[in-house]
Amino acid sequence: MADKNYYTIDPEGKLTCMKCRCALEKGKAKFLYLDNGFPVELPVCPQCGFVYVPEELALGKVLSVEKALEDK
Amino acid sequence: MKIEERASTHVYRQKRMFTKEELEARERLCVHEQPPYCNAACPLKLDVKTMTAAIAGGDFDKALGLYEKITPFPHLLSAGCEAPCEGKCKLCSLGEGIAIRELERAAIAYGSRTRSRSLLRKKNTKIGIFGGDLFTLFLAGELAKKRYPVSLFCSQTDGDALAASCAPDFSEAVRTATARTLSNLDIEVFWNTDPSQAYRQHSCQFDLTAAAFSVARQLFPEIVPDEAVMVSREHHLITGPTQGVLGAAFGAKKAALSADRLAQHLDPSNTRGEEGSVETRLYTDLEGVLPSLRIAVSGPDSAKAEALRCIQCQCDVCIRGCAYLRHYQTFPRLLTREIYNNVSIIMGDHMMNKPINACSLCGQCSVLCPNGYDMGEICHIARQNMVTTGKMPLAPHEFALMDMLFSNEEAFLCRPQPGHQQCRYVFFPGCQAAAIAPATVRAAYLDLCRRLEGGIALILGCCGAICDWAGRYELYDQTAAFLDNALAQLGNPKIIAGCPTCKKELSSHPGLEIAGIWEILEQIGLPEKAHPPARPVALHDACGARGDPRTQRSIRTLAQKLGCHVVDTPYSGDQSPCCGYGGLTQYTNREVAKKMTEACLERSDLPYLSYCMACRDRFAREGRESMHLLELVYGTSADHCPDISAKRFNRLRLKQELLKEYWHEEVDTVQLGFTIRYAPGAEALMDERMILKSDVIAVLQHLRSTGEAIADADTGLCITRARLGNVTFWVKYQETEDGYLVFSAYSHRMNVVNRQ
At CA B124, angle to CA B182 and CA B150, rounded to 5? Predict the structure, then answer.
């Protein structure tokens, strides 16, 4: 079965993990809120697993989903 | 004390806010939808108010359309109607009421009839009407409008003769118009017939029969029809006595409805709805309405002028006073029902959460409403209900609740006056006073210590209003117990509140004596530094002082003693609106809160004098010169619009300084070991996004302990994050020689994790 993702961001080599000194890659992550989960693909450090949530995503899609869930 | 996020959106609990009876009892208090007095008085249900508005707007066609809805013979009705509506016009109590009948005639004279073909299919039930009088004429018209096949048997020779016999006192024009209207209706008329004889011969051909009452008496001398439905069940005949034009028209309306029921083989009394004139409970505020006299209607312009005198009666006193109700374009009854339904939803979207959390709970509506409708109480009950069922999201209230915990934990201070074990008084300035005007709090405390005897303790903390407003009743009980304990340790002294909301909240604690600092100052007089403002000021009453005439009086006395030139504004005293802070509106809905503040400031162009620090702060943020009474009393100035971090810093520093200076207690302050500076605009952005400097510090401390951060090649900035409680905070920064330069910060409540 195909892997379902609600959102995908490819870092395109522009982001570097300062701890591991390596480039972030498009990786699998999951947003969790109020007992709900949403699989996504975000920039992830292949070594330490740091998941980056960009400002536009946090204040855009993430915020609107948060508000929608809060009113459930 | 702990604040917990709701566990899941998949918890399907429900608790009803009210019983059905209680809900209906509350809804009944709202008279916004009650009919205006004129409409209520009309037995034919003419929408006088809309008709008058149409004429006032020059739309005579619409006015005529409304009038034609109630009668098939507008000329006849307008000529002979006794107009019970005119006597009920609210303007009668001031001068002369609206000349409604003249306006009806104007609608007929200047409006064009719209000849639309009826979309109704012709009905099968044949109805025979016997006799030609006012009642049968109106009845024939009503039944023809309902698309019944109608046959009218009358002794008159033609339409003119019928109109003349029905309306002998009316003008030729009215009679001609009535005859013309009759000829245009789909009615088969048998002229020159004896109605009684016709009944005997032809009644069997009809499914239903109706008769003029005089004809019915000839046919059945003992007939006693049920006048409520205009039917003689015994003789299967629609008939009944009527009086006058309006009586005949109303009788015909009732009879036509009975025909509908009989055609469906139902009892004519069945499901008739509300008929005739009704009593209305409408309230119309006549304040500002000037008495006026009738304008003689002689043409379209004078009709328009007369209609423009109509004040379009409606009850909107609460809406006019409340920015919240105006924002949602609603009125209490409807809003209550929507909130009730919202709370009753087990699964799905709760569309009314935002309005429930946007009310300031100030209670202004309960004072303005003639029936005391309290929308704030309903929103408060709804919030508590949502907390009980686990449906209340934490997000709208979390910042305020955390701020309250900060006030009652890190920034909390409770000490007896140095040199006293137990104190006669305790000064409780309130969290917002310490956050916005720490210098004023300090001056007030020292002044009280200097001029009152018996020892003055000090409590810096929150009264619990925040969690009360959030509907977190368990947290409120914990806060109340915490404060009661602190007060007990001081020997339960008399509380001197610095904030009217604190006074109100703490008054609910049993066994506590409480007064506002303004009442104490009224007794002991003003200190030396007291000075009046240079200009006259508009006094804004705090919503926390609603229903507290003693406080309102005391404030005015004190302002007078200060030498203030105080100008009372509209909606002052008990009617005062909330500044936008109350009920946590400032946190839950900034747009509504801003509208509330603007509505407060619309009342006067003068500088605003208030006695609640939250009001003072919000007015200043809107750019108005704003002062708290205690600033004038003590010659101190509040901080100018401190941001959320400064408000915390002020509370903490006040506590630390007072502890050091008056109780000689050293407070350990944590040294960060690095410096944080903010790029231009970063602090304002953080304030806008409700991100504290302490959050940024915690994120950077997390960075230093873990080294977790990324570098963005596009911007040249580093980005790090930490999960603090229910929120993930992100900070964009550059490293400096001794620490960090912060460019931006943002946050989200969703937790993000890796997955395989």
Answer: 20
DSSP state of B113: P
Q: Report whether pLDDT(B406) > 70.
A: yes
- How many other CB atoms sit within 10 Å of the CB of residue B290? 9
- Counting the structural domains of chain A, the total is 1
Type of residue found at B47 = D
Would you state the pLDDT for residue B116?
Answer: 62
Predicted interface score ipTM higher than 0.85: yes
Distance from CA of B592 to the nearest CA of A (A): 18
Structural domain includes residue A11: no
Q: Work out the average pLDDT over B623-633.
A: 96
Tens of pLDDT along B304-347?
A: 999 999 999 999 999 999 999 999 999 999 999 999 999 999 88
The reply to whether B395 touches chain A by the CB within 8 Å rule is yes
CB spacing of B754 vs A68 below 8 angstroms: no
The DSSP letter of residue A6 is S
- Structural domain span for residue A43: 16-70
The answer to whether B709 contacts chain A (CB < 8 Å) is yes
Residues of A with CB under 8 A from a CB of B: 13-19, 24, 27-36, 39, 42-45, 48-53, 55, 58-59, 62-63, 65-72
| Structure-token pair, residue B487 | 């007060």
- Closest alpha carbon to B639 in B434, B491, B463: B434
- Cβ-based contacts of A5 with chain B (< 8 Å): none
Which pLDDT band holds residue B115 (cuts at 50, 70, 90)? low
What's the pLDDT tens digit per position in B697-723?
999 999 999 999 999 999 999 999 999
Can you give the pLDDT at residue B669? Answer: 77
Nearest to A69 among B9, B354, B755 (CB): B9
pLDDT digit string, tens, across residues B64-80: 999 999 999 999 999 99
Q: Would you say residue A6 lies in a domain?
A: no
Contact residues on chain A for B713, CB-CB shorter than 8 A: 13-16
Q: Give the strand order in the sheet containing A36-44.
A: A36-44, A25-33, B751-754
Task: Indicate if the alpha-carbon torsion angle B14, B19, B22, B26 is positive or negative.
Answer: positive
- Find the CB nearest B754 among A13, A51, A67: A51
The answer, for B5 touching chain A at a CB cutoff of 8 Å, is: yes
> Hey, are the CB atoms on B753 and A51 less than 8 Å from each other?
yes
Residues B675-748, CATH architecture = 2-Layer Sandwich (3.30)
Q: What is the pLDDT of residue B117?
A: 62
Task: Note whether B378 and B363 are within 8 A (CB).
Answer: no
B127-263 is a CATH 3.40.50.300 domain: no
Residue A9 inside a domain? The answer is no
Every domain of chain B with CATH number 3.30.2310 lies at: 675-748
Q: What is the mean pLDDT of residues B717-731?
A: 97
| Per-residue model confidence as pLDDT tens digits over B121-175 | 889 999 999 999 999 999 999 999 999 999 999 999 999 999 999 888 899 999 9
Q: Give a yes or no: residue A26 inside a domain.
A: yes
Q: Give contacts of B711 with chain A, Cβ < 8 Å.
A: 15-16, 18
> Does the CB of B712 have a partner CB in chain A at under 8 Å?
yes
B715 vs A: CB within 8 A = no
Could you tell me which of B573, B636, B215 has the C-alpha nearest to residue B438? B636
Tokens 């992550």: give the residue.
A29
Is B602 an 8 Å CB contact of chain A?
A: no
- Distance in angstroms (rounded) separating the CA atoms of residues B665 and B657: 9
Distance from CA of B446 to the nearest CA of A (A): 46
Nearest CA-CA distance, residue B94 and chain A, Å: 50
